[in-house]
């Protein structure tokens, strides 16, 4: 299973050569210059924050495509990019005033449009919902749009981050894994991996940063560990231990990388 370490400092793309990273569009979109990645990375669209703040996507498909093309060209090593999907947490539904079904339709419609505009970019379809039947309906919408999820290199499962360790999410993950889909779990950290890591092809998390808010900084340059690369890589080692105990493997963090992060 491939685990993407979520980071909020794009410059880390130039400092960690041997593990995959996940970076949000919200951290990159305002930058005039972009770092050149020395590692594989994936792009998160930042949809949860976008919808929570504005109740809609403020950037249209054409502009998003132009921006992601820039990331692919200037940063390089882009493994995949998340679409402008619509999450289905209750707080997001309340903010948009729309139903789960409409969020699903917009999610599928967006992926189709992005692929029409930029078929060369590695867009990843994302399933959204709340209950298992919701996610199954979203999969049906993709099929109706002519998208064969079983043929996709990766299929994201969204709206699970804040309940990733629940039995409901485990049932959802295992149900779609039986369909032989290559699943990516958004925001799946240690508690979730302990339950269903073997059902996933990949996942990501940056929960290390939240935890680091309550840890004193390891050097004079920062008061807490919420923005510390060394702390993030140490947390990543814990993920590797979890995966190892499940009989799975993840990318290694070498002592040399930890030394550079000090």
UniProtKB/TrEMBL annotation:
Pfam families: DpdA. One of its GO terms (biological process) is tRNA modification. InterPro entries: DpdA, TGT-like_sf. Residues 2-241 form the DeoxyPurine in DNA protein A domain. This is DeoxyPurine in DNA protein A domain-containing protein. It comes from Prauserella muralis.
